[in-house]
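PROTEIN DESIGN WORKSHEET
SECTION A - STRUCTURE
LENGTH: 123
TOKENS:
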């Protein structure tokens, strides 16, 4: 019904078409079911195009050091497992010096731990 699509109230539709609110509600539900199914079908038809775009994004991102599309791809393909953390959310930084089998030794290595800093306005 165009009246539902235009956002007319049930009372206005009832008056114009002399039908019950239950009838209008049933029509509205059928319309919503149809639209959600149609959108899902359209999205699935475009899935191959989206996979190609995702692949392009992964390749282009890798050139500029942005690996999020590649990581997403690997997670969705279940090649990688998501990293779980016991410490909750927040930024984690690891600095690795050297390579496996070729460590770089430094005479005075300093380990720095940090705490979250918030604005005084947030407290």
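SECTION B - SEQUENCE
RESIDUE ASSIGNMENT:
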């Amino acid at each position: 019904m165009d009246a539902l699509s235009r956002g007319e109230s049930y009372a206005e539709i009832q008056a114009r078409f002399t039908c019950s609110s239950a009838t209008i509600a049933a029509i509205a539900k059928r319309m919503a079911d149809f639209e959600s199914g149609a959108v899902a079908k359209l999205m699935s038809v475009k899935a191959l195009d989206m996979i190609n775009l995702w692949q392009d994004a992964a390749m282009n991102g890798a050139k500029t050091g942005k690996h999020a599309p590649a990581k997403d791809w690997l997670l969705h393909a279940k090649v990688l497992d998501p990293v779980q953390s016991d410490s909750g959310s927040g930024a984690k930084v690891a600095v690795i010096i050297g390579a496996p089998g070729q460590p770089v030794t430094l005479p005075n290595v300093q380990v720095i731990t940090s705490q979250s800093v918030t604005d005084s306005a947030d407290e």
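SECTION C - NOTES
The first strand starts at residue 98 and ends at 99.
The CA atoms of residues 32 and 38 lie 10 Å apart.
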